[in-house]
C-alpha cells in the first residue's frame, strides 16, 4: 500500500486540509505516477460543494493530472519509469460494452470510473489529483508530448479534451463559423483549438473585459451578451456553438444564433435545468446537444494536436495552501484562465 500526501475536504462548507490517502499496490497493468501538477476544474468545485448530489467525504478532487511514471506493473507495455504522462477525468471503464470498444470509454454503458468521487473495481473510493501520487491502469494513462510543459499540460486533461472533442465531432474547420460562449478555463481553450482547426471563431461573453485576450487566442470577433443588440446582430449566424458556461443561461436565445442545421453543444454542466422551447429548434432544423470529455484515444489525439500547434492553456500556478482562495476566485471569474496546483507544496 502506498501512502500519498493530499488535500481533502470534509463537507460542502469545509475548507481543504492536509491528509494522507492510500493508493493501491501495483496490479499487473498499473502505473504509479508521481503527480507534479493538478489543475482546478469547475467540476472540482461543484463536487466539493455537493452541487451535483451526495458526496462521499472526505474528498480529494482533481482530474487534470500531469506527472512522471515512477513504477510500473509487471505487465505494463506502454510506459516506463521516467515517462511524462497525464490522467484525466476517468481511470477505468468496463472495456467490453459497445461504446468502450469504439474508444468512447467516457460513455461506458456500465458507467466509467471517475478519477475522484467514484468507486473503483476493487470497491474502494477513488481520490483525485490534489495529491502526490496516483495509481492508474495503463490503458487510462496518456503520454504528454515533450514540447508541452507539465504545468500547462494538466488543464488539457479536462479543459482541453472537453472542448476538443465536440469541435472535432461536429467538424469545426475551414468554412465553419464557431461561437464559444464564455471565456473561462474551458472557453479560452475552445477558442484556441477551434482557431487551430481553421474555423472562424466568435466569442460570446457577458462583457468585453476579455476581448483583447480572446482576439489574441484566435477569435475573429468578440461580442458582449449583456448587450441586447448582440442577439439581433448575430441571429442565424453560426454552424456550431460551444457553450462552456456552468450556470443557467437563456439557452433559447443562444439557439437563435444557429444557422440552418446548426448545433449548440453544451459542455458546461450547470446544476439547474436549461429549458428548451421546441420552436427554438424546429424553425431552422437546429440541434441542441451535449458532450462529455473524450475517450482515451481522442485525448491522446488532442495532446498531439496541441503539441503540433503549440497550444497551451493560460495558467496561474498556486500552492496547495491557496486552493480555497482559488475556488472563490473561480466562482468570481477572477482567473486567467486556469489554476494549477504545484503538488510539491502538498
From TrEMBL:
| UniProt-listed Enzyme Commission number(s) | 1.-.-.-
Q: Which domain of life is it from?
A: Bacteria
Q: Where is the Enoyl reductase (ER) domain?
A: 11-341
InterPro entries noted in UniProt: ADH-like_C, ADH-like_N, ADH_Zn_CS, CAD-like, ER, GroES-like_sf, NAD(P)-bd_dom_sf
Q: Which cofactor does it need?
A: Zn(2+)
UniProt keywords, alphabetically = Metal-binding, Oxidoreductase, Zinc
For this protein, the record's CDD domains field holds: CAD1
PROSITE patterns with a match to the protein in the record: ADH_ZINC
UniProt-listed Pfam families: ADH_N (PF08240), ADH_zinc_N (PF00107)
According to the UniProt entry, its GO molecular function terms are: oxidoreductase activity
Question: What family is this protein classified in?
Answer: Belongs to the zinc-containing alcohol dehydrogenase family.
Q: Which PANTHER family match?
A: ALDEHYDE REDUCTASE (PTHR42683)
Name the chain's protein: Zinc-type alcohol dehydrogenase-like protein
Native source species: Paenibacillus tundrae
> What are the leading ranks of the lineage?
Bacteria, Bacillati, Bacillota, Bacilli, Bacillales
Amino acid at each position: 500500500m502506498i501512502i500519498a500526501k493530499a488535500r481533502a475536504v470534509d463537507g460542502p462548507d469545509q475548507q481543504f486540509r492536509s491528509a494522507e490517502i492510500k493508493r493501491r499496490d501495483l496490479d499487473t497493468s498499473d502505473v504509479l505516477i508521481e503527480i507534479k501538477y493538478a489543475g482546478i476544474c469547475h467540476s472540482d468545485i461543484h463536487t466539493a460543494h455537493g452541487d451535483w448530489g451526495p458526496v462521499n467525504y472526505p474528498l480529494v478532487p482533481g482530474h487534470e493530472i500531469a506527472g512522471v511514471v515512477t513504477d510500473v506493473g509487471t505487465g505494463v507495455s506502454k510506459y516506463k519509469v521516467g515517462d511524462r504522462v497525464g490522467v484525466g477525468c476517468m481511470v477505468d471503464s468496463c472495456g467490453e460494452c459497445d461504446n468502450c470498444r469504439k474508444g468512447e470509454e467516457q460513455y461506458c454503458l456500465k458507467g466509467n470510473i471517475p478519477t475522484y468521487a467514484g468507486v473503483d473495481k476493487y470497491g474502494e473510493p477513488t481520490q483525485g489529483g490534489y495529491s502526490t501520487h496516483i495509481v492508474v491502469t495503463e490503458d487510462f494513462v496518456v503520454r504528454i508530448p515533450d514540447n508541452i510543459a507539465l504545468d500547462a499540460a494538466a488543464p488539457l486533461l479536462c479543459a482541453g479534451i472537453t472542448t476538443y472533442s465536440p469541435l472535432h465531432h461536429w467538424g469545426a474547420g475551414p468554412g465553419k463559423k464557431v461561437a464559444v460562449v464564455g471565456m473561462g478555463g474551458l472557453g479560452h481553450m475552445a477558442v484556441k483549438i477551434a482557431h487551430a482547426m481553421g474555423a472562424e471563431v466568435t466569442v460570446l461573453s457577458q462583457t468585453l473585459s476579455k476581448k483583447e485576450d480572446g482576439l489574441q487566442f484566435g477569435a475573429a470577433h468578440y461580442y458582449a451578451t449583456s448587450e441586447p443588440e448582440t442577439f439581433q446582430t448575430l441571429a442565424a449566424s453560426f454552424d456550431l456553438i460551444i457553450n462552456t458556461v456552468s450556470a443557467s443561461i437563456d439557452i433559447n436565445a443562444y439557439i437563435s444564433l444557429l444557422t440552418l442545421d446548426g448545433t449548440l453543444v453544451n459542455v458546461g454542466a450547470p446544476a439547474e435545468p436549461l429549458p428548451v422551447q421546441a420552436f427554438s429548434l424546429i424553425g431552422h432544423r437546429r440541434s441542441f446537444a451535449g458532450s462529455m470529455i473524450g475517450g482515451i484515444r481522442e485525448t491522446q489525439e488532442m495532446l498531439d494536436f496541441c503539441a503540433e500547434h503549440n497550444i497551451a492553456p493560460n495558467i496561474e500556478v498556486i500552492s496547495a495552501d491557496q486552493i480555497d482562495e482559488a475556488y472563490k476566485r473561480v466562482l468570481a471569474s477572477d482567473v486567467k484562465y486556469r489554476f494549477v496546483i504545484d503538488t510539491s507544496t502538498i
